[in-house]
UniProtKB/TrEMBL annotation, chain A:
Protein name (record): NADH dehydrogenase subunit E
Alphabetically ordered keywords of this record: 2Fe-2S, Iron, Iron-sulfur, Metal-binding
Gene: nuoE
Any GO MF annotation of the entry: metal ion binding
Listed cofactors: [2Fe-2S] cluster
Family: Belongs to the complex I 24 kDa subunit family.
From TrEMBL, chain B:
Keyword 4Fe-4S assigned: yes
Alphabetical list of Gene3D superfamilies matching this protein: 3.10.20.740, 3.30.70.20
Record's protein name: NADH dehydrogenase subunit G
Organism whose genome encodes this protein: Parapedobacter pyrenivorans
Cofactors demanded by this protein: [2Fe-2S] cluster; [4Fe-4S] cluster
Pfam families the UniProt entry points to: Fer2_4, Fer4_Nqo3, NADH-G_4Fe-4S_3
Upper taxonomic lineage: Bacteria, Pseudomonadati, Bacteroidota, Sphingobacteriia, Sphingobacteriales
Family stated for the protein in its record: Belongs to the complex I 75 kDa subunit family.
Entry GO MF terms: 2 iron, 2 sulfur cluster binding; 4 iron, 4 sulfur cluster binding; metal ion binding; oxidoreductase activity
NAD recorded as keyword: yes
Residue intervals of the 2Fe-2S ferredoxin-type domain: 3-94
Domain 4Fe-4S His(Cys)3-ligated-type: 95-134
From TrEMBL, chain C:
Keyword list, A-Z: 4Fe-4S, Flavoprotein, FMN, Iron, Iron-sulfur, Metal-binding, NAD, Quinone, Translocase
Residues covered by the NADH-ubiquinone oxidoreductase 51kDa subunit iron-sulphur binding domain: 340-385
EC annotation from Swiss-Prot or TrEMBL: 7.1.1.-
Recorded GO MF terms: 4 iron, 4 sulfur cluster binding; FMN binding; metal ion binding; NAD binding; NADH dehydrogenase (ubiquinone) activity; NADH dehydrogenase activity; quinone binding
Name the UniProt record assigns to this protein: NADH-quinone oxidoreductase subunit F
Record-linked InterPro entries: ComplexI_51kDa_subunit, NADH-UbQ_OxRdtase_51kDa_CS, NADH-UbQ_OxRdtase_suF, Nuo51_FMN-bd, Nuo51_FMN-bd_sf, Nuop51_4Fe4S-bd, Nuop51_4Fe4S-bd_sf
Record family assignment: Belongs to the complex I 51 kDa subunit family.
One of the Pfam families matching this protein, by short name: Complex1_51K
Transmembrane helix is among the record's keywords: no
Record PROSITE patterns: COMPLEX1_51K_2
Lineage: Bacteria, Pseudomonadati, Bacteroidota, Sphingobacteriia, Sphingobacteriales
Length: 182, 338, 450
């Protein structure tokens, strides 16, 4: 069970609420629960993960019990229930990608970032994990980075190094401080 | 469809007439006895339950009078409705028995088998199921699944390792209580009953989660480690309750009521759900109007302490001296036999 | 060169935009269907075409459509299954990325045929870029009056929405997909009732794969009979094949059904042979769920006939010596690949993706994964191999949805055809652990013919 550290009440921005309202119009009257998955994606895109207050707020917005949101958020693997690195690298680890070297790529990422699967680097910039088939088996090995889910294909060790360097550069150019761990 | 239309169905060759819309399982229950498939997740009083545990799989060897083709796969009898002329095999199909054995094995591989310290022992459906359909041995050699312990309040004890994910408690919370605060979280074999954040499951009907749980995953915290069920004596009683039917079973040890449960039918289902006031707040004999002792099957483990002893041990039967010495006692046992 | 119906204009620059797509004859099928055909006539054309579901099950699409219940005053829904996640399959991603309007056009035609006024495209959440592409395509089509109220002045109204998934393979199962679209956990529903009677929001619903829906466009344009002329027997039309694994030219190919497997693998028009000059050892022909076949059996049937890319030919020999066309996820293994490791990997996938609702799948997939892990890492015993066969048998056919079968078949077939590779892992534990590849003697000994 989760020990709740982040219990401050949370308010969504006007922009987010506008987006939510548009999403709800896609479904028939009274079927607003259908908006749950897309709204959770929006929330994650804004905060980097799904905290309990954020999920409670979504529940209130969609007139659901909080447990209904937790049930859904814990079922689907795209939703992060813990803070991640600013760039969460997700490498496909299923059969066809492994035929062309996905396991090697994951090992390389682990060594390069110096953190194990699921952990966040000390600067808060990166986390990584293996994920199941990303439906790009002809272009493997592949990885994706949310929240845009930018896709990188035909990965090599050198390519991964280059990508990590670019992301580091991008982060420092934006002058963004790494996101705080909650 | 006219109300008097009845479907003729046979289960293991035994014919039965049922109303259209009846499930195979309920048709079998009308026949009763050994042909009734075991059901770990179906609960007739909970809408939407069933289909999940797969212990009630049966073979439909003839689909219907109109379309006599057999169904290609075994079907969950609790969620498959009968057709006129349907022929079903339950215990007469080797395939069904094999599948049931498989399901029992699956349910047990990650079960902690901690019956010696489990309050459900003696009235556990998984115990019964394993006894009837299981293997004596396990082929599973890996570490069994565990979960972080969570506290769901002062009335219900949750042991997630024992859970078979029947979803009955979720249906209870949905259908009987005003607000559901627990649910199934996670996915696959990591799925668990949880509230996600620390929250007590507590409302006027939450105690029914204990009664519907087929295993020891949800037990009565007020009864916890108080006694083994077979040392307690079930007595039927009722009270004038403004919330529920007030018809319960009191479980006595000596003069004390150790716990209160709903009355269970042959299939272990509550005859009527009861409220938490009846279940947790009224544990004095004076709170109740006693109807009499609950009828318990002689084969039940619960009956074992309510007769002086079972049949004389085999050694006695062969020994004339002992027989003569215990003559009076044996006669008393004979009289007690139903 | 073989005929193409879906990817005809794939190389035209800008084909992903409405303008170019329209210039190349796009949305003619909408005009034809809405202006000259009744919905029943559209269904009839699809029936005549012999089109079979392209998502994997191969159920005739026209027949599925004709099962749709049509009670008065109840809305009907078309839901497009774009939750492509079967390992080995990436054709829908390709189609949606490069020719999104082919799907939108198919959605309009199909929705019209079914009498749906609201339709959803359920795209797996990881495909956010494709979701954005589709949303833009929908906006473009709406702008051109091909979506929304009174389409092309015919009085037919249709809204199409894109719904993201959340990361769950099981949502490719149609009832799990509907649950997910309703904002719930992706637990497959217990059938009956089938979606055709009670689907999305308890209304009659048809769920079709991306490729099936896109295929209705050439079917309406050229007529069902014309479409049925392509292919062999009950395998009509063209099919997108996702080719991956150890091939010289992996990628998505549109083939005419009936193409010999050998030609598909070795011809330069398609995969161009096995990569790095190696030999072919095995093929999974229809996505990870279908039985794996060794090189000799994928190239020729047991009767010695050339194996063809059709539903029937790939299934020839049943599960003893055949497999399935499935979703067309074609994975080739070269001589150095380890079948045990691959089976373990696939089983881990199914274990990870099991929804956990029914006991044989929830418990059995994890059990198989653990046993396979043990064998792959050199700690297995011979009895473990038999145990795997038995556990697979206990799962198969006894679950709520086909994921149980999909998890059982790869294990059963790998042991059926590559048993001595499993046994080699038992007898040579240390070596198996050290080298991570399997036995080469299964590889095709023949020189490629083409």
């Amino acid at each position: 069970m989760l020990s709740v550290k982040q219990n401050e009440p949370l308010e969504f921005t006007e922009e987010m609420l506008g987006k939510f309202a548009e999403i709800v119009t896609r479904y028939p009257e009274g079927r607003q629960k259908s908006a749950l998955l897309p709204i959770l994606h929006e929330v994650q895109a804004n905060y980097g993960w799904l905290s309990v207050p954020a999920m409670d707020r979504v529940a209130a917005y969609l007139q659901l019990e909080a447990i209904e949101v937790y049930e859904v958020a814990t079922f689907y693997t795209m939703y992060f229930l813990q803070p991640q690195g600013k760039y969460a690298l997700e490498v496909c680890r299923t059969g066809p990608c492994c035929l062309v070297g996905a396991e090697r790529i994951m090992k390389h990422i682990e060594e390069r970032l110096g953190v194990k699967e699921g952990e966040v680097t000390s600067d808060g910039l990166f986390s990584w994990r293996g994920v199941e088939c990303l439906a790009a088996c002809g272009y493997g090995p592949v990885l994706q980075i949310g929240p845009e889910y930018t896709f990188y294909e035909n990965l090599t060790e050198a390519g991964v190094d280059k990508l990590i360097d670019e992301l580091k550069e991008k982060a420092s150019a934006n002058g963004q401080s790494p996101i705080a761990n909650g | 469809m006219a109300e008097d239309v009845r479907f003729k169905v046979s289960i293991d060759g035994i014919p039965v007439d049922v109303a259209p819309g009846t499930t195979i399982l309920n048709a079998a229950r009308l026949i009763g006895g050994d042909v009734v498939p075991p059901a770990m997740c179906y609960y007739s009083k909970l809408e939407g339950s069933g289909g999940k545990c797969r212990t009630c799989l049966v073979k439909v060897s003839k689909g219907s009078e109109k379309d006599p083709r057999p169904m290609p796969k075994l079907v969950a009898s609790c969620r498959t409705t009968v057709m006129d002329g349907m022929e079903v095999q339950s215990i007469t199909s080797a395939e069904v028995l094999e599948a049931r054995k498989g399901v029992v094995e699956m349910l047990l591989i990650n079960h902690p088998l901690d019956c010696p310290i489990c309050d459900q022992a003696g009235e556990c459906h998984l115990q019964d199921l394993s006894y009837e359909h299981g293997l004596a041995d396990t082929r599973y050699e890996f570490e069994r699944r565990t979960f972080d312990k969570i506290d769901i309040g002062d009335k219900i004890q949750l042991h997630m390792t024992r859970c078979i994910l029947c979803y009955r408690c979720v249906f209870v919370a949905d259908q009987l209580t005003p607000q559901r605060v627990h649910g199934i979280l996670g996915r696959g074999d990591a799925a668990e009953i949880s509230t996600y954040i620390a929250k007590a499951v507590d409302n006027e009907f939450s105690g029914n989660m204990i009664d519907v749980c087929p295993v020891g995953a949800l037990t009565d915290k007020t009864f916890r480690f108080k006694n083994r069920v077979w040392f307690t004596k079930p007595v039927e009683a009722h009270r004038d309750c403004p919330t529920c039917s007030g018809k319960v079973t009191l479980w006595y040890k000596g003069e004390d009521v150790l716990r209160v449960t709903a009355r269970k039918d042959t299939y272990g289902e509550a005859e009527a759900f009861i409220c938490n006031t009846c279940r947790f707040e009224n544990k004095a004999t004076s709170d109740w109007i006693i109807e009499g002792p609950r009828v318990v099957k002689r084969t039940s483990v619960i009956s074992s302490n309510h007769y002086e002893q079972l049949n004389p041990p085999p050694v006695v039967k062969k020994n004339l001296t002992l027989q003569a010495a215990n003559k009076e006692q044996f006669e008393r046992i004979e009289r007690l036999l139903p | 060169m073989a005929r193409k119906l879906l990817l005809t204009h794939i190389d035209v620059p800008g084909i992903h935009t409405f303008e170019v797509y329209r210039q190349k004859g796009g949305y003619r099928a909408v005009e034809k269907a809405l202006k000259t055909l009744t919905p029943e006539e559209v269904v009839e054309e699809v029936k005549k075409s012999g089109l079979r579901g392209r998502g994997g099950a191969g159920f005739p699409t026209g027949m599925k459509w004709s099962f749709l219940a049509k009670p008065e005053g109840v809305p009907r829904y078309l839901v497009c299954n774009a939750d492509e996640s079967e390992p080995g399959t990436f054709k829908d991603r390709y189609l949606m990325t490069h020719i999104p309007h082919a799907l939108i056009e198919g959605m309009i035609v199909s929705s019209y045929a079914l009498g749906a006024n609201t339709s959803y495209i359920y795209v797996r959440g990881e495909m956010m870029p494709q979701i954005r592409i589709l949303e833009r395509a929908i906006a473009e089509a709406k702008n051109a009056g091909l979506l929304g109220k009174n389409i092309l002045g015919t009085g037919y109204d249709l809204e199409v929405y894109v719904q993201p998934g959340g990361g769950a393979y099981i949502c490719g199962e149609e009832t799990a997909l509907l649950e997910s679209l309703e904002g719930k956990r992706g637990n497959p529903r217990i059938k009956p009732p089938f979606p055709a009677v009670s689907g999305l929001y308890n209304c009659p619903t048809v769920v079709n794969n991306v490729e099936s829906i896109a295929a209705t466009v050439p079917i309406i344009n050229d007529g069902g009979e014309e479409y049925a002329k392509i292919g062999i027997e009950r395998s009509t039309g063209t099919k997108l094949i996702s080719a991956g694994g150890n091939l010289n030219k992996p990628g998505v190919y549109e083939i005419e059904l009936g193409l010999p497997v050998e030609e598909f693998i070795y011809s330069d028009a398609y995969c161009g042979g096995i990569a790095n000059g190696k030999r072919l050892k095995a093929v999974v022909a229809g996505g990870s769920s279908v039985p794996i076949l060794p090189a000799n059996l994928i190239l020729k049937t047991l009767k010695g006939e050339p194996r063809l890319m059709t539903y029937e030919s790939l299934a020839d020999g049943g599960f003893q010596s055949g497999t399935m066309l499935g979703s067309g996820g074609f994975i080739a293994y070269d001589e150095d690949q380890c079948i045990v490791r691959n089976t373990w990997n696939f089983t881990r996938f199914y274990h990870h993706e099991s929804c956990g609702q029914c006991s044989p799948c929830r418990e059995g997939t994890g059990w198989m994964e653990k046993v396979l892990h043990k064998i792959e890492h050199g700690h297995g015993s011979f009895s473990d191999i038999d145990l795997l066969v038995d556990v697979a048998k206990k799962i198969e056919g006894n679950t709520i949805c086909p994921l149980g079968d999909a998890a059982a078949w790869p294990v059963a077939s790998a042991i059926r055809h590559f048993r001595d590779e499993f046994e080699w892992h038992v007898t040579n534990g240390q070596e198996a652990q050290a080298r991570n590849y399997g036995l080469a003697h299964y590889a095709d000994p023949l020189e490629p013919v083409i």
